[in-house]
Amino acid sequence: MGFDMERFVAMGGLGGGHGQHLGIAYRAHGEDWAELALPYDARLIGDPTSGVIASGPIVAMMDMATSVAVWLKRGAFEPHVTLDLRVDYLRPAVPERTVIGRGECYRLTRSIAFVRGIAHDGDPDDPVAHVAGTFIGMTA
Amino acid sequence: MSAPRTGIGQAMVLPPYAEWLGCSIEWVDGLPHLIMPFGEHVMGWPGLLQGGAIAGLLEVAGIAALTHRLSNEGTTRIKPVTVTTDYLRTGRDHPTRAVGTILRLGQRTANVEVTAWQEDREKPIATARLNYRILRG
């Protein structure tokens, strides 16, 4: 059976208010990874002099992409919370470009999920951010 | 003691993203405290704050702390390099406050710690350590 990504997206699983307001959309997924997209929006600018969007929305997207990656790897939706998340800002995202976030769950224990991911604005080999984090299940 | 609430502090203009979050500044003991109201735009699970919105608030508060400290230094640019957020408690449907403490401000880098809380400052919902590159002149 596993985790039904299409159904999850159709049910508004990525929405939940914040994601919906940011315009975060589903792009692709695999057995242990998911890819989301954050369209450029002038209201999300963090540095008015350059027009570069703030890092907060990128963190929100990466939190969601890595969350979904956990459920894909586990093969089921299990509520969890973020324990910690580290973000390395490698370079500013280019204004006007959609930012794509790819999250991966690389290790799963009964209660802890270890995740990592990158965000890029067109070229995955030239990422704008790298993330690493952990989630803890609320039921285990 | 608390100064009158100012949407945008003296010599401090919050970026569009901070306004999108609904943040305002309250000056407490001369330090900028960021206040983010609860709303659907920052909600994850029904009735709960989304982790990304919490991280966003922490980052805005970190920038505000540094902008305030650097306000008499002329042109400076502040670029986040690494941000590590620890989620301590569930964020609920209450306003969230955050304030940054500058651990060190050097010539090239700054290290800031930000704490966010809701009803009780002694019970933070999240903390973040933020390391910045500072560009002067």
TrEMBL record, chain A:
Alphabetic keyword roster: Hydrolase
InterPro entries: HotDog_dom_sf, PAAI_dom, Thioestr_dom
Stored SUPFAM superfamilies: Thioesterase/thiol ester dehydrase-isomerase (SSF54637)
GO-annotated molecular function: acyl-CoA hydrolase activity
Domain Thioesterase: 51-125
Name the record gives this protein: Phenylacetic acid degradation protein
Organism, scientific name: Sphingomonas yabuuchiae
Organism lineage string: Bacteria, Pseudomonadati, Pseudomonadota, Alphaproteobacteria, Sphingomonadales
